[in-house]
Amino acid sequence: MKTLLQLELKKTRLWPCIFAGLAVVAASLALGGMFLAIGHTSGRSDPRLASLAFVLQMAMVILLVGFSLVAAALCNLVFIEPYTGRNLTLTLSCPISRERILLAKLVFVGFFTALSYLAGTAVTLTVLLLVDRLVGSLEKGSPGCLFGQVLFMLVTSLAGLAGLVGIALSLGFWKRSLPIMFGVLLLLDALVGNLLSLSPLLSALVLLIIFLTSLPAWWLLHRTLMKIELP
Question: Rounded to the nearest 10 degrees, how much is the dihedral formed by the CA atoms of 160, 206, 25, 170?
Fold first, then answer.
């Protein structure tokens, strides 16, 4: 497994995904900073705007949507291109079982996505909390309550990432179409993003449903890849 992961690392062009992840973090910081400014200047007109939990929540909306797109782009490099392009024969002729190859690809994509998302979230939330402390804290309730809300959103967002990407990747691979994959993902992101900005509990339920729905999609993708024959 270690050798297969190292091979994936060497042959996959990660720099575009890394730069895209940095752009997502920058966008989440910009949006979070905007909501911090609104909360400090006109938060009295809307109590929700004066809540630090709401500011962090909006930043995490951008992180979820952005990193789902980054993960989809990585899945295109790891799954769609090798199994639909000119490297199909080389991919399928490796003297290793397809199950091990596919498992290594899943671990590679999952590890990179989870690590990038967690690192981006840690940087974003840390910066926003420091800025809020410097300019005067917004209403945040007890620290334990705020930590619980952030942890809850983080766990559900990770599950949602797997679900969103799984559904979009399966449909995109089935139709052999990158635009379809990103189109489906953008529609799901729009739905989840709107719900997350309105109600974290409702969005968590939707993310859980999406995650459960993606399990058959991941299984169908696995079955499809196992049945591909050499040309």
Answer: 40
Vertex 85, ends 79 and 90: CA angle to 5°?
80
Encoding tokens for residue 151? 């942890």
Q: Which residues contact 118 (CB under 8 A, 6 or more apart)?
A: 154
Q: At residue 14, what are phi and psi to the nearest 5 degrees?
A: -85, -20
Which of left, alpha, beta for 96 (phi over 0: left; psi -120 to 50: alpha)? Answer: beta
What is the pLDDT confidence band of residue 118, given thresholds at 50, 70 and 90?
very high
Nearest to 58 by CA among 39, 37, 40, 35: 35
Tokens of 190: 């729009």
Largest Cα span, the chain: 66
- Nearest by Cα to 79 from 208, 171, 169, 4: 169
H or E stretch including 160? helix 143-174
Per-residue pLDDT at 94: 67
Q: Which residue has the tokens 């809020």?
A: 132
pLDDT band at 140 (very low <50, low <70, confident <90, very high): low
Length of the chain: 231
